[in-house]
Fold this protein.
Amino acid sequence: MTRTARGERRRRAILDAALQIVARDGPRAVTHRAVAAEAGVPLAATTYYFASREDLVAQALRQVVDAELAELDGHFAGLGLPATPDEAADVLAALFEETLARDDLALLAKNELYQAAARTPALQAESRRWTDAYVDRLAPVLERLGAADPPGDAQLVVAALDGLLDLRVSERRCGPEELRARLRRLLVALCAPAPPARGTGRRAGRATRSRRPRPDAGAAGER
């Protein structure tokens, strides 16, 4: 094994240890000393690869985001764009269930770090990258389905998925069938045809008819 490969393996072990601590004890418990003990490496190794605690935590989140986005791309690469809101809901529900089944540790750590981003600028860029990646992949789907604002509506779908994920992880609610039903309702609502513009339809027809002269108007004027 080359020195580069050994170094990358040690670096990844340090990040994995940081994620273990985040998932178990929260982001504030991550220190160079705690991570070194968790990973079984010298303290100097953590400071060699990561200049600060903030850098270590941000790189740990980046590792989780990279892995999840790689799986997301692989998932979408094998699928055509859904043709109906129901099909799109099924695809998203399947992806949701795969995320839950993949790795509870990574999921818990990502959720902890995502919340911590509100107070940690170093985490905000990775959190935004995760959200933007999902929005970029969902917007074309919603555009094909007829959504009025595909990027904005994709943000709504991502926010809904994030909230439903919290329900499942934190409260053990919203099982697979309930998830599909909720996603179908959301996507049908977002992709429904726009209502007629005001001033058209029956009301406009009545207004037009009311402006027509009565058949006997001319005769009355002659008299």
Summary: The longest helix spans residues 53-77. The radius of gyration is 27 Å.
